[in-house]
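Task: fold both queries, return tokens.
Query 1:
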Amino acid sequence: MISKLQRIRLSSSVFENRLGQIDQRTTWTLLALFVLGGIAVYLWMPRLTYYPKVTHPEADKLMRQLYTACSSNDEQRLTAAEERFQKLIDAETISAAERGAFEKIFKMARAGSWEKAASDCLRFAQDQVSR
């Protein structure tokens, strides 16, 4: 026959085991919720953008033309893109921020950093999509 003291010890050890399992289960549950929450924040948070929003459809076309020129290392296409860029400046259809971004990419391409210029031009285009 089990005495009252042994019953208390037995029920106490069962409670400790259950408490240990609950704590471990709770820990894993909280960890899983934290990881899922981090993934959700990563997916739904807006991505940092480096380039300004393009304000005119012609600037968007210029961006594509500039990317083509840079990715193909073509001086003639780059010159044509610069002429289109100058027309946009003369018509005042692009903002100062856009102008600075395009000038930076043109400068890289003229310096011979075709891959970097193409990469930056692609990033410029990607920043338009994420807005």
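Query 1 returned. Query 2:
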Amino acid sequence: MMTALIDATHHLLPLAARSSSPPPINPFDMMPWGFFMVIMLANLVFMVGAGVVGYYIAKKYEMEPWLGAAAGFFLTWIGILIVFLVGNSQQQARERKAKEKQYADWWYANYGPQAQNPYGAQGNNPYSWNGNPAPPSPPQPPNQP
């Protein structure tokens, strides 16, 4: 039955009308293995290079260097970008905390005994008047040994 259908439709399906079909194409037969090895070696060199760059970026931003190397190796340029952005945000947070601590230390050194009202008496504060409270004072510095 099937052969009769194929014989009847040989003008519509020329490949199906053939009695013997060609063997399937194997893509690995068409590509030389040397070329494949060169591509894989170049990829490995690129991944190792990205791991080294990730290692040094993580070290620069005071992160764990092995995390930068792993992200660079496995994720290549996306891993390098992640390490850079995370490290940069952590560095900015450290700088911001250092500035806050410096300001708190300065304020405590100049106005320490007057913790509730940094301007002294109520009348000396330009932001308050009788019956209105003064603005909040800056944070206290941490207890130092």
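Both queries returned. Flag for query 2: The longest helix spans residues 65-111.
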